[in-house]
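Progress against Task 2.4 (sequence-to-structure conversion) is shown through the following example record, which the project officer requested during the mid-term review.
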Amino acid sequence: MSNDYAAIISALIAVIVVIGFVELEAYSKAAVAGLDEDEESLRGLFEELLTRMREGGEPTSEQLERIREMANDGPLERSWRRSRGPIVVGMWWSVVCAALVSAELLVILWAAIDKHGPAQWVAWYSLLSSGVGVLTLMALSMRRALAVPVKLAAPFQSRREMLALRRYIRLAFQQEEVERDSGVVEGAER
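Structure tokens generated for the chain above:
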């Protein structure tokens, strides 16, 4: 390993580590947010039920259906399903960042030793760990780019809601086309 290579790889590793820690923080927040959202949803449902019961009313069929869904699909399972992606990616980033930090420390140690030798294994280890870091960055960027349609579908509670909205949008566009076509016909008659 040469001094020039050590300087280049050290700078590259430092950049990847900073980005990795930022990503790790973002994925940690996303995992916690998924858990918090489920807790708030459950708390809101129970508050609605308690309020309705205190007023002397029976739960609505919608509330009963939500209770059934939550009972069949336990809160922990639902929370895990929502949070497992960010948790797994966060764990992967932790491993990658640990490898990068250890490579950075080895390169710094190599540079600090007077009359250091070639240390080919440090060069290979730093190259491989930085390569894994760059590939991870690229893979996650592609994942984000391809996940846009999933984020658009996320606000819907069920497939039925998504299909109903799609139907309403189609009807709105068909109505617009009918109005536009009738305008063309009226303009041609004049």
